[in-house]
SCP domain-containing protein
Amino acid sequence: MLALCLLCYSSTTYGRRLKDSYHMLISSREASASQSSSFHGMNAKEKEIFALINNYRQQYGLPTLQASANLAYVAHTHAVDVVKNSPAVNGGNAHSWSNKGNWKPVIYTPDHRQAQLMWSKPSEISNYKYYGFEIAYGFGDYRDRGRTVDPVQSVNAWKNSPAHKDVIIQRGAFQNMPMKAMGVGIYKGFACVWFGQYLDTFPPPE
């Protein structure tokens, strides 16, 4: 069974709320930094997802994204939390965060009531100072010890899902929200990708 989940909903109303909330948190001034070619500790499969997403973006004339140590840390932390702690309870989906870590728990429901708690996870648990946006993929019983993520299958699934595709190639609610940074995290059969609008100029998490 393929499990796909997306942080953001692409309706006009929700897109407007997303952008308004985002700009309440950060200024409109872009952080200046040179693009890094480092993968910041991402393993081979995480690097492959990173490269596949950037290659796909280039097909649409979009710039490649910077590898972010902080967003990769958030992605890996969330993948581990989903697999180990099963936070998708009480109507929440796999974008939820459990109450078993050094973060505010999130029950992420279809009405996006706790969206800002989710978007702010990078600034809450890493040194990245801005909101982040997540797409996630789980293959079958992703908690099973023998499960693993297939990077090509993961990216193809996101490409074939309009809502996920919107995040990757900046359509819909993300049309005027150009992404600059990306981090990938995999644990067992679950993969998370976090995107950020600003380059990661901050020290990596310790």
Summary: Helices lie at 12-25, 44-59, 69-85, 115-119, 121-125, 151-159, 162-169. The CA atoms of residues 8 and 112 lie 8 Å apart. The radius of gyration is 15 Å.
